[in-house]
Amino acid sequence: MNSLGFDRFFNVATGHEPFDYQRRLAGGDLGTTLCQSQLINIPTGLGKTAAVVLAWLWNRVELKKANWPRRLVYCLPMRTLVEQTRDEVGKWLHNLLTRAEGLEIEGQVLNDLQWLAKHSPIVLMGGEELDDAKRDWDIHPECPAILIGTQDMLLSRALNRGYGMGRARWPMHFGLLNNDSLWILDETQLMGAGVRTSAQLEGLRRKIGVGAGCATWWASATLDNRLLDTPDHRERDEALALADDDHKTPEVAQRVNAVKRLAPLPLTLAADSAKVVEPYIEKLAASVIEKHQPGSVTIVILNRVNRAKELFTVLEKAAKRQSLPERVLIHSRFRPMEREKLSDKIKESGEKIIISTQAIEAGVDISSRTLITELAPWSSLIQRFGRCNRKGEFNDNGGADICWINLEAEDEKTPAGLALPYAPTQLTTARRLLRQVESSGASPAALEKIHADEPLSETHILRRKDLVDLFDTTPDLAGLDIDVGRYIRDGDDRDVQVFWREIVAKEMPDENIEPFRQELVRVSVGDFDKFFKKDKTRIWMWNALDGEWQRPDRIAPGQMYLADFALGGYSEKLGWTGEKSKEPFPFLSNQPKPKSPRDGQGLDDESLAKAFLSIEEHTNDVRDACQRIINLLPSSLLWSQALLRAAHWHDVGKAHACFQNFLTKNQAVIPAKLKDRFLAKAPWKLGTRHERPNFRHELASTLAWLQAGGCEDFFTQNLVAYLIASHHGKVRLSIRSMPGEKAPDQNPGSEVLFARGIWDGEKLPGDTNKKLTLEGFPSEPIVLDLSCMRMGEQNGRPSWSVRALSLRDHPQLGIFRLAWLETLLRAADGQASALEAKAENVT
């Protein structure tokens, strides 16, 4: 038994004693040997976040349970919840570390806590600026990590189409999030299609196999487990709920039995047309003023952002005629720079009226004396009720009041528009259940007795074939990548992200412009498409293929767009408007962010360095880093031979004349000791281009291995070749020439194959006056053979596609293991480069 004890561990982290269910989830003082998928069905306000995070910290970090994943992946439906969870987790890690000595935490446990406190939590949401300690989380697969992000950012990465990130790193995040990770999906009632996708991913990981174990915990007070019954996830996972010992705790009893009177507001919205909504908003504003209790907080939750903005505007006008408490509008269409201030404001003590949308119905730790809400699905209503008398704090003063507004279409033939973003059948069920529970009130204890089989909305189901197809990240030359948005959010709830800069008329944006997190606003695809069509000439999207900003042909979900400030579309008070701005709003200057390597297919920023390094020096560093990672990841030992061979050969292609010219041009002085050596890295300016467009040294390395590597079996030969080719994420399942590539000079009537800057028949190394002394590399130059880019066998040798697909579909590998292995090699390369950079700084 651990001498520390879980209760003390939990108390030091949070300042509270754990509830019984939190102990059971963590396995108590002994912990649990296996980390298994399960449902966590706990009422709102009872510490689900602390339960799951501390359970993972206790078992993975404190008790060193080998079968618990190294990464905790905390997935949430919206940014406000991410920010709140980030702050809580950071506080718990700080508390544990500052009291480590008193807790007798030492050795590797202390090292891991120190690592986590410095490198976690890693926040993944659009435009988030990670500091240096957290930015490179994906090159440390052997270390513990806590990732917190929105479902858009995390699920898109798990599908190999990571939103808001460079294409070349998609496979790394795909590999890391589908191996050695514990997924927490919290507030699932707001996730739509994402819930079913998470279940499918869990089922497919079990069927296809992973390199290191994964599990999923679905946490919500209102999770409908029918959503988890999908074609590849039929298992009934265990469920955790409150037990008798939990109910005996006074704090739990006070919350579960909180007094919340429930009654309908004498107001109905019967259509979503402007002529109906306008008088409805006027009457609602009068009701809000009437129902508000002096000295308290009133929360009004509406289903549509536009209605919330209109109610706020009417109350603002009313405040000019009469004394009203402070009004606060909050919804998902604000930029972080405004939303963070609003979030702080709604948490401050004092009298106020808060107008919100679904953005407030989950996770946000605020409570009201009066709650007014539009009719919504039953699961959403339960979450909204959790924002009223949340801790039972009004029980001794008469309790609290909840008023609900009926939404019921006059025309039964057209109810869909009024119900949005929900389905009419969901509202019909909720209306019936509200009337059923009115007499007993809306305490968690009363709601627990209501059984509601809500109609399930239709969503796209991720199938095995879909996920396998997504494994190929080769850029589509027409720009038509597979859209994964339908697997992440419901069809009407898919967003883009937008930021503004001042762009000189008729000029293209500087390629060094990158958005900061605080300036990005989420906008629905439909709304932004209307905005885009007003002026298509002043909106741009980053083109990773060409490494530059370009005007888009269409608006696609999950993408990030740059808009000229002159177009407007935003208000500090109201958030996204899509209209010409009546008042100017602040925007950031064109000063670029500190640069990280961009992944345009023709760029080679990964070789940026502060000093010269030979291929031999860098290769030895990568091999050492690879061996360290293997030693710390027991599950990788089976693949150690292939990984180390790939590390040994991964950069031999840099001996190509094109790459050497790339590194040495415009260099004043090359160290004397390296003048007869081939360089792997050298100082050069960001954005420097190869003389051959789209040149990739890793393709040259791969061809050299296939011809001279000397491997005893076909499977290993192919695996090593694939790992070499994929170690920058730009050559994977296919080899083909890219737009703008130059064909070699050819003899009349002849045809020379070329792809990614490599010409069939040329030699490696490209300069016989220099030495390449890697063990196993032949003394004579290797003639590079590009015939493998053709379809079918060439001279009895399979094509590259056949080799790569044989690995992707091999029962010992499959998509998850293969991506994990390529990530391990890329991580070794990244770690070696980071250590080299530190050494360069010292010298």
Summary, kept brief:
The protein is 36% helix and 14% strand. By secondary structure, it is an alpha/beta fold.
Written description of the protein model:
This protein has 843 residues and is of the alpha/beta class. The strands form 7 sheets. Strands 3-4-2-5-6-1-7 form a 7-stranded parallel beta sheet, with helices on both faces. Strands 8-13-12-9-11-10 form a 6-stranded parallel beta sheet, with helices on both faces. It is 36% helix and 14% strand. Helix 23 (640-649) crosses helix 26 (714-725).
Separation, N- and C-terminal Cα atoms? 48 Å
Main sheet properties: 7 strands, parallel
Strand proportion, as a percent range, falls in: 5-15%
Coarse shape: globular
Q: Which strand order spans the largest sheet, edge to edge or round the barrel?
A: 3-4-2-5-6-1-7
Give the helix tally: 28
According to DSSP, the number of beta strands is 27
Helix-residue proportion: 25-40%
Mean pLDDT across the residues is: 88
Q: Topology of this protein?
A:
Blueprint: H1 6-14, H2 20-26, E1 38-41, H3 48-62, E2 71-76, H4 79-98, H5 107-119, E3 122-124, H6 132-135, E4 145-150, H7 151-158, H8 170-177, E5 181-186, H9 193-208, E6 215-219, E7 238-241, H10 244-247, H11 250-256, E8 260-269, H12 274-291, E9 297-301, H13 305-319, E10 326-330, H14 336-347, E11 352-356, E12 370-374, H15 378-385, E13 400-407, H16 416-419, H17 424-437, H18 444-448, H19 464-470, H20 485-488, E14 495-501, E15 521-524, H21 525-534, E16 539-543, E17 548-550, E18 560-564, E19 570-571, E20 575-576, E21 608-609, E22 613-614, H22 615-632, H23 640-649, H24 657-664, E23 679-683, H25 697-708, H26 714-725, E24 754-755, E25 758-759, E26 763-764, E27 782-783, H27 800-808, H28 814-842
